[in-house]
């Protein structure tokens, strides 16, 4: 018999942000492998490509590594860091995530950063206490404490996504203002799908046949 770890599908760090934005979007991208760009996603991709393409360098006792691949099999997480700062004297690590917009009212960006820290901790057998978010729109860097509350939120979210992947079913749409910013809007058709009750009709028909 396989262990839970062996049976668990590894989750891409980006899936956490997709799930917080919309569970259906997360399933379409990571289960059904559907993707379509709009202006926002294209701009974000170009920003990350510029950041990730930089060569490693060292300045004043800090090693800067770009486009770092991370993998944490025990947690079931994998992904890529935009930038990893390694304080060589203290042997501490600080992940930096680049975002195209500005700081958000929710923890959506902080959760992604925390997931990166958790991967580093499993890989390097270390403790990551702080990360950073750099926002293109404001040109500001925001340091984020990887505290107990953020870790709990991130791990709970990871468990929800792993359950979604285990079930293998794409959730029905819940139309809202966020849909207008989604690059998958035309493929998802949230208004049309939300009004489609055909699945309920089929289920009811089969239930009647069983009686």
UniProtKB/TrEMBL annotation:
**Cofactor annotation comment:** Mg(2+) or Mn(2+) required for ssDNA cleavage activity.
Enzyme class comes to hydrolase
Q: What is its EC number?
A: 3.1.12.1
What are the DUF83 domain coordinates in residue numbering? 14-189
Which cofactor is essential here?
Mg(2+); Mn(2+); [4Fe-4S] cluster; iron-sulfur cluster
Q: Which InterPro entries match?
A: Cas4_exonuclease, CRISPR-assoc_prot_Cas4, Dna2/Cas4_DUF83, PDDEXK-like_dom_sf
Q: Which Pfam families match?
A: Cas_Cas4
Instruction: List, in alphabetical order, the Gene Ontology terms for molecular function in this entry.
Output: exonuclease activity; iron-sulfur cluster binding; metal ion binding
* UniProt keywords, alphabetically: Antiviral defense, Exonuclease, Hydrolase, Iron, Iron-sulfur, Manganese, Metal-binding, Nuclease
Record GO biological process: defense response to virus
Q: Which PANTHER family match?
A: CRISPR-ASSOCIATED EXONUCLEASE CAS4, DNA REPLICATION ATP-DEPENDENT HELICASE_NUCLEASE DNA2
NCBIfam families in UniProt: cas4
Q: What does this protein do?
A: CRISPR (clustered regularly interspaced short palindromic repeat) is an adaptive immune system that provides protection against mobile genetic elements (viruses, transposable elements and conjugative plasmids). CRISPR clusters contain sequences complementary to antecedent mobile elements and target invading nucleic acids. CRISPR clusters are transcribed and processed into CRISPR RNA (crRNA).
The entry sums up its family as follows: Belongs to the CRISPR-associated exonuclease Cas4 family.
Q: What is the protein's name according to its record?
A: CRISPR-associated exonuclease Cas4
